[in-house]
Amino acid sequence: MDISTLTICDAAAELRKKTFSSVELTQAVLDAINKKDADLNAYLSVDAEGALLQAEAADAARSAGRDGDLLGIPVAVKDLINVAGQPCTCASKQLVGYVSPYDATVSAKLRQAGVVFAGRTNMDEFAMGSSTENSAFKVTRNPHDLTRVPGGSSGGSAAAVAGGEAIAALGTDTGGSIRQPASFCGCVGLKPSYGRVSRYGVTAFASSLDQVGPMTKTVEDAAVLLQALAGRDAHDGTTPDVPVPDYRAALRGGLKGMKIGLPKEYYIGGADHEVMACVRKAVDACAAAGAEIVEVSLPHTEYAIAVYYIVATAEASANLARFDGVRYGHRTANPGSVFDLYAKSRAEGLGTEVKRRIILGTYVLSSGYYDAYYGRAQKVRTLIRKDFAEAFKTCDALLTPVAPTAAYRIGEACDDPLKMYLGDIFTVPANLAGLCGISVPCGQTAAGLPVGMQLLGPAFGEGSILRAAYAYEQGVRA
Amino acid sequence: MSHTLDVAYVAELARLELSPDEKRTFQLQLETIVNYVEKIGELDLAGIEPTLHGQALVNVFREDVVVPSLDRECVLANAPERNGFEFKLPKIVEDA
Question: Is A29 helix (H, G, I), strand (E, B) or coil?
């Protein structure tokens, strides 16, 4: 069985027809990992034994008459989402040896749906980065060109899905960490609206921005996974009681009659011309399929990166204070005092980018600077949010590039953190405004590197962007 | 917004020991980044309300009921050092 192009929906159909069992499917995923992961380095750990047991249970449930879109389907999980009994390193030396005592809500929901947890994917340490090069353990490679990065921070999940080592995966997105690696690797990545999916049990990076979402081979698979993930959770107070629609049904509307907005600030220079050519072709395809294209303006776009790197680092500095060597994780040997225990355990356990962001975040929150940085950033965030609210008065979704470039070479962007941060310009505004966004493959460069387009929708407007993305994807295939 | 970013001082606030090398590198890199983010100083923000997070939710309450919590042994299994059912730490309070 070749799982490289196997989708959730296809696999579910075959499981129903008994073409293969979940045990056979899971074994095929494990075989693919064994065969390919020496090249890709997409996974940090694989739980073959546990996965096969879960697959057996799924097969037994199916024999007993149970059915479900995810029953017996293996899904890869980014290594910052707790799955009981599995490691959860966040790609950090700080958490070597940690075993999750509980399921994150998303893991519990997928477990309930019969998902098989086959392995945990590589990432930038604590999700801080855009290339997965900040992993403390290994450098994941782009399946389309092994000398290039898969993007990040959910680079392992993207590489596993696009490289034929997973049927689907979970990622997290704080400033683009699902959408950008999806674009770099050529898969679909959906960042749900803030509050749509619970973050309970997901290692927090920036709590006002983080979301969990699906990374899949097709838009339909993204809808199926989102269906299982979405909804109110008593363990996460930021999940409002907004009804979860039938996302698969939402796919069917077509582009005809939809208004697609092009934010002019996203189309003026900055991005690579090959990337822009792919995105413009996608715009034309949407127009040809019956969408009305309108120009909109998001005037505060130029402030988004500044706001993001204040808000995200400030919140990270607070969230990562828990990694102090007291209750779990790395502890320095023979600390002389409690201060020493904190400072040295963190010094030894955390990587360079994480330290850099903790320092920046601590600084912008420190006495005398709070108002000038965090306080002002939150107000600019209001302006950014209002820009989008205004834009969505005249359109159903926005179509933009995901990243200014296609996948770059490993090592190429590492030395200059600010340069790396600026690459997030098209993705961070959605997190700041709490919107939903999806990255869908829309072509490739002359060198054969995938390019994604981004569709952004209003908060809890996942149905609209899934509908547009699905229609586009079907049109391209036809 | 004039700033004096002293990495060594901030690292102490963050309970994070930095090597002399890290201090030097971060000092330079973070000055560049801070200069960049100061562009938000250009905007007139009088009368603008802050956005605290992505949704306009306030004061989410729940009933205060006792529910089962994580298994104690399972949680303590991750402790770097323990003493029975306690996390073991260096002495915090001096003897009287």
Answer: helix
Of A99, A317, A328, the CB nearest to B14: A317
Which of B30, B55, B57 comes nearest A359 by C-beta?
Answer: B30
Q: What is the pLDDT, as a whole number, of residue B1?
A: 46
Query: What is the CATH topology of the domain spanning B7-42?
Result: Histone, subunit A (1.10.20)
Catalytic residue among A22, A36, A78, A439: A78
Q: Give the model confidence (pLDDT) of B17-70 as tens digits.
A: 999 999 999 999 999 999 999 999 999 999 999 998 777 677 888 889 999 989
- Which of A22, A131, A157, A177 does the annotation list as catalytic? A177
Task: State the pLDDT at residue B81.
Answer: 94
The nearest CA of chain A is from the CA of B65 a distance in Å of 12
CATH of A8-251, one of 3.30.1050.10, 3.90.1300.10, 3.10.20.30, 3.90.550.10: 3.90.1300.10
State the catalytic residue, choosing from A92, A153, A154, A317: A153
A356-381 pLDDT tens trace? 999 999 999 998 999 999 999 999 99
ipTM of the complex: 0.94
pLDDT of residue A477: 59
A contacts of B36 (beta carbons < 8 Å): 305-306, 418
Give the three-state DSSP class for A116.
strand
Residues 9-28 of B with CB under 8 A from A: 10-19, 22, 26
| Residue A176, phi-psi category: left (phi > 0), alpha (psi -120 to 50), beta (remainder) | left
Chain-chain contact of A327 with B57 (C-beta, under 8 angstroms): no
Q: What angle do CA A44, A320, A379 make, to 5 degrees?
A: 120
Burial class (CB in 10 A: 0-12, 13-18, 19+), B72: exposed
> Cβ separation of A326 and B92 shorter than 8 Å?
no
Q: Which residue of A has its CA nearest to B30?
A: A360
Cβ-proximal residues to A193 (8 Å cutoff; 6+ apart), any chain: A211, A434, A435, A436, A457, A458, A459, A460, A461, A462, B54
Closest C-alpha among A474, A8, A461, A455 to residue A245: A461
